[in-house]
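Bump. Still looking for Glutaryl-CoA dehydrogenase structure tokens.
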Amino acid sequence: MWSVEELFGIDSLLSAEEREIRDTVARFGERRLRPHISEWFETGTFPAREIAPELGKLGLLGMHLEGYGCAGASATAYGLACQELEAIDSGVRSMVSVQGSLAMTAIWLFGSEEQKQQYLPRMAAGELIGCFGLTEPDFGSNPGGMRTRARRDGDDWVLNGSKMWITNGSVADVAVVWAYADEPGSDKPRVRGFVVPTNTPGFSAREIDRKLSLRASITAALDFDDVRLPADAVLPESRGLSSPLACLSEARFGIIFGALGAARDCLTTTIDYVRSREVFDKPLAAYQLTQAKLADMALELGKGQLLAIQLGRLKDRHEISNEQISAGKLNSTREAIAIARECRTLLGANGITLDYPVLRHANNLESVLTYEGTAEVHQLVLGKALTDANAFR
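Sorry for the wait, here they are.
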């Protein structure tokens, strides 16, 4: 019996080191996470403080970054790690993505040497948890409309505003917060990043509950009420909205691989199920309609994996564009959620229970389809690339 990877010869496209990283993460996920993930999802909890050091020991936090205790792995290897983490649950991959691709990447790209030395080694080890404050209650797809403001008061900065849907927010030790900064001598405020220890007076985080998606993930709202920060809290190289958007591109890249991990877990679970489930005195797998569904899903999963690896190779050569990342994110999330929904039909009533991961993945993918740019936003990115006409406004 063939797997999708065998059908498309995926392993032949990977180096021995990339396969070893993928397999190591897969073993960790099966041993440490899968036995508990349905319970965490059902109870809406995730033991971030306990799991983060274990992820750090594996070198998964900021693994694509160089120096400061980071693994310096290839982009493709990072993507494969994301795939295996999301095969367990999107919430696990989200934690790693926010820590490494958003919070740590922001400090690595735009921080001072002092900030890098202070935060990155401990974040890479999982000793410090980070979050990334960009999205606001009224500004998701349009982050340029944010209302959070930072003003100078002597040598200090004073931060006011709020952020919403912040992964890791209520357990974070440090938040990278984006705000319009009113700077003396400047005609208009511009977006700057700030490194904010979460024990700073005026900082508060409220966990968002009653979620139907990403339940095994910590999501919070952040509030800043006259949060006073020293002058060196600003990320000195952050210059405008392009800075946080560069971090988002890193996170989107991980999703290209990650969403396919969720889809693969759905498909392999379903294949195992239909081979043993008997309907009208023969296995469900022996019916033509079942095989047609499985074949179509395997094709879309395999094509998605080939695209992901191609984009990984482009990124490793520093040749990838934001438009290509949008194409990958749109394709992987759209096909993954379609596969999850189709798999649920083959599991019948069993598919709605937490005894199987399929509907849990489908619920999570509803969020993955939306965050880091909705499917519609990425369609417009591609539309602009193809026509040179801007349809955003």
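The domain at 131-233 is CATH 2.40.110.10 (Butyryl-CoA Dehydrogenase, subunit A; domain 2).

Edit: fixed formatting.
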